[in-house]
Amino acid sequence: MITLKSIDRDETLRYLSGSRVVMNAGMEELLNICEEELLKAASPKYLYITINTDNTDLIIGESIKAHLKGCSKAVLLCATLGSETDKLIRTAQVTDMAKAVVLDAMASAAVEQVCGEVEKLIISDNPQSFLTWRFSPGYGDYPLSLQEEFLRILDAPRKIGLCTNENSILTPTKSVTAIIGLSNTPIESKRKGCASCNLNRTCKFRKAGTRCEF
Amino acid sequence: MNFNDLLKKEYIILDGAMGTMLQQSGLKLGEIPEALNIEKPEAVIDIHRQYVDAGTEIICSNTFGANGYKLKGSGYSVGDTIKAGIKNARIAAGDKALVALDIGPIGQLIEPAGAMSFEDAYQYFKEEIIAAEDADVLFFETFTDLLELKAGVLAAKENSDKPVVASMTFEKSGRTFAGVSVASAALTLEGLGVDALGVNCSLGPNELMPIVKEFTSWTELPIFVKPNAGLPDPNSNTYDVSAEDFAECMDKVIGFGTVKLVGGCCGTTPDYIRALKAVTENRVYKKAELKRSTAVCSGTTAVEISEPRVIGERINPTGKKLFKEALKTNNIDYILSQAISQVKAGADILDVNVGLPEIDEKEMMVRVIKAIQSVVDVPLQIDTTKPDVLEAALRVYNGKPIVNSVNGEEKSLSTVLPIVKKYGASVVGLTLDKNGIPKTAEGRFSIAEKIVNRAKEYGINPQNVYIDCLTLTVSAEQEGCGETLKALHRVKTELGCKTCLGVSNISFGLPNRPLVNHIFLTMALQQGLDLPIINPNDEDMMGAIRAFKVLSNIDKNSADYIANYNEIKTEKPVINSAHVTLGEAIRSGLQTEAAEITKEMLSKKDAMEIVNGELIPALDKVGADFEADRIFLPQLIQSANVAQACFEVIKAYLTKTDAAPVSKGKIILATVKGDIHDIGKNIVKVLLDNYGYTVVDLGRDVAPELIVSTAIEQDIRVIGLSALMTTTLGSMEETIKLVRNTPELKSCKFLVGGAVLTKEYAEAIGADYYCKDAKESVDAAKRIFGS
User: Fold this and answer.
1) Selecting from 2.40.30.10, 3.40.50.280, 3.10.180.10, 3.50.50.60, what CATH number does the domain B663-787 have?
2) Which candidate, A129, B40, B253, B459, has a CA 20 to 30 Å from the CA of B289?
3) What is the pLDDT of residue A210?
């Protein structure tokens, strides 16, 4: 079980695309309130499973091939903050939109944090392996529609209540699916970078002259 | 043998896992298990047979995921898969066991958590049930959302007469993934008339014990329990409880009473079932003691009517101009804010009435019920005079609600009570009939008695009838108050029913109404009033109830009272408005001050002058700061909300003086079909609202047809669309196309936005304005409307 004790502030502010804005007391207070409520509502859950990369239907397109180059095994993972988090954000959208925006950004940061924790577990399960970074359906030319297949293999609807809808949107919405390659040799440093991101023309970070960590 | 005969036995043995057994026989990860019914029937029959040999008396078919959503693209139809599944089970069962159609969740989340509508879920279940004419029992299991399960049970009841059993999957916390409590599951399923209910999956028998125990205090129906073989090891996917330990634990579970059907879920095998059979042999069934009094619930929260509970009365257009306006303009957010504020003020239950002659009450009621239950946890009371509206609301309600109301007239009794029974609700009984309200307590009591007796004839337990002895205006009929209270007391003591009462009518026509109201409330509580229908935002009324609970030894150690009044409420210091300008108040997020300044200004200045000369320029300044990265987005929104408060002041002033409300133009906003990310659209809405535009918000996952019909009906020619996913951009294009192809709407202008949208794409699909953020949507609106 993963329990979050705090939520990454810098990451939250980055999602709010305000990394260049000077913090003030009002904003600080709003962040504190939101963090407290979100930690109460979030119920992080995750699943992961190791697969052989030569015997799977999940390798579709060039991006994933490049990503898993040299990896004979890979880990499929999914994580979610649960439906209470969605409800918290939904309710805030009625009562206090400013709070809703902060909660939304903070929940995105939180689910990434959960993935980070899961990655630590994967590392401890595979002490000899080298790990690629997390690659998700929708990156590069890797089809978003594979989300459903990921969830089916992980039995996620039944085990942690994570589903997709007909348009491959994950529900609860603050959720992630990803694949991590496991290699016996060090991973050749491939910068993920904007070029392999399908948001590169519209990205709010790039518009603001910064970058995400992708 | 049929299910009811089987129920006469002391205990009934169910089967164990199907998935576990299929995996052992070579099913690969991600493969569709139900396809094996057709591809390898022998393998499936063999597993069933092993269970029958172990003692199973009801075999569940291998059809857990055999629904139209999960089978899409598999090459197999629902009908063929289910018929084959039942046939396989039947071959194995012979005359030793009954065959149940196993029905699992559809596989996508139902609204509001997901995008599947209640109606779609119903259709998927209906398709399965119709295909299962050869089954003996319909067996719903592993559900986590009560509303989805309700859609299934209704589909079962309305399309077949087979027995229905239903179970949900709980976590250690005692709730399902969707937050459903044991009490809510038990109250709702029992109300819907299932034949047995229970728990399965997710936990082992040991961890399930407290959950089963809780079930026994909420239902008298036979309970069934199908635990996993302990907890899974995430790496090996094996389970940690042996067949012997499993049976030993289940022995204790059976000991709680009321548990009648037992089996296993993930990780269990025929060995577990054999061990289970040994435990139940020669054992006499017993029922646990039922502890609950009457209760109602939402999907997450049960409210026992064991002490005075407040029903909030504010969701009702009667006498409320702003509320009527909200209904006419589809302003659901206004209604939701009324719901949330009442719950914050302490309401236990909310009355919901949206009856207004100018609107489609049925459609509005369904929308409002769905929306309210997506943001608050309290149970609802459905308040309408129309049976079709009532039934539509009861279908989509998640939990066990109260129906408001039935009365002593034959026509009312014979239309309302069958609906109440079908959906398992509680009902308010008004003590009036075709002759009106009897003057005397005796007259009202005898109508109450009649309602209770008729309810019994329809199979409604008198526990679920809440009698309203009706408050009359004391300034018109002074002796009436005593009669109401006398009737209330008799109903409570002689009929044993719970009572409710709308309170504030009492003081109509008198000065200082709140004083009369709260004294009357106190008198009624003393006579045994259980459900006062009041405005919970009225501090004196809530105070009277809290104090009553202390004085009548209900609020133990005055804990609730102290929690409410111990801290002197610290109000934010109000800055003397003489020292701040409206612009400064907006920039600094000072809502109260800004509203005060606006009020003052209205006595000196014209409303439009305030809007255009003060509010808009102040908002523009904040908008420029946001664009220049001087403030965060939430701060922009906070300023917008302050402006909103100022607009509300102006709107209320104009509504009072009957002047036309300030609107600079009407805009439809919607998140396109298939997309459920609506936060961006909602930010745009806040800003447009605050710049004085009238926004008709159609919500998320909106069908193009609804946009077209709304634009025509409300004569709107500006439409804002949002889509957040590459997969839903197609819906945006489709919507624009449909609108453009509608002759009346040729001149429509489109604003579009969303994370994955680009200017080029926006142009390609024929949008007029690409808005990269909320601020740009305001700029676009200004260009379109010229201000």
Assistant:
1) 3.40.50.280
2) B459
3) 62
